[in-house]
Amino acid sequence: MYPVLFSIPTPWGAIPIYSYGVMLGSSLLLAWYFIMYMGKRIEGYNRELLASCFTWTAVGAIIGARLLYIFTNIDDYDSFGSWFDLRSGGLVAYGGFLGGFVSAWVFWRIKKIPLIPFADIAVPTLASGLMLTRVGCYLYGCDYGRPLGDDASDFLKSAGTFPKWNSDAYPNFACDQTITGSPAYQHHLSEGLLADDALASLAVHPTQIYESAAGLLLFAFSFWLLTHRKFRGQVLVTVGALYGLWRFFIEYLRDDPERGFAFGFSTSQLISLALIPVCIIAYVQLKKRAEEHGDIQLPQWALDEESAPQRAPTKEDARPAKYRPKKKKKKK
Length: 332
Known about the structure:
A hairpin with a 2-residue loop joins strand 3 and strand 4. This protein has a two-stranded antiparallel ribbon with strand order 1-2. Strands 3-4 form a two-stranded antiparallel sheet. By secondary structure, it is mainly alpha-helical. The N and C termini lie far apart (77 Å). It contains nine helices and four strands, in the order ββααααααααββα.
């Protein structure tokens, strides 16, 4: 587990390259290529519109992830300037999802184009982002789980033990003296669960790996659903509900105190409790709208000349032509 992968020497000192930053950058790069390709293939979007919206969404996601972390740990910040010290960590996945959603909504609202078709395209990249950034969390040692029981397997104990870091053992850390120990190690030491000379944390649930695996499964499922959806918005609300359900229960295994708590639940659990019913209601409404009034349409100017079909298939498309409702002819 290496929070600093390597450092770049410069005349002004070494610049650390963080594991989490590399994984976050990788997730954004993957999201860019996925959205640009699938947006054109599935919906026929104009590539310039996609590129602009991606930029808005990515920036909004990072801002949202940072703000939610700050608001749930406001006592840890002694000045406004410390809000921008990303080297100290502090991004929340839910904040990133919500920040990206709001930014995309504002962008398409300004353009007077429905958000839902783009949201369906973007959802698989949220899952792949979860998959990759949780690997970064694991390498840094944050977002760890509760201590494992004595009957846990040796593999889990090995995967869930986070070391005490120091510049002697890890030369890469010499370029960043702000890192004094893995978060799990620091937490257990402050709680009196470790001796002062301990070299590693207690063995805990590697919840980062659990969530990364969940991200991989959600990515595969959302990609499949995107190519088989019955109406626009189906991918967004289905995967949103599934992630909310998963996040609610995985929080019971988490043990990092920075998550924020209220009414006996973590911040993420409270968001999940609000998100799941919203997604269920939205699913019913979007499906009903598509069946009764046709699917959400995109304006022609938002599409490339050689665009994909204007709408996702509905129930009417599955009927033989002779059983479809006939259009009334206008009287002359």
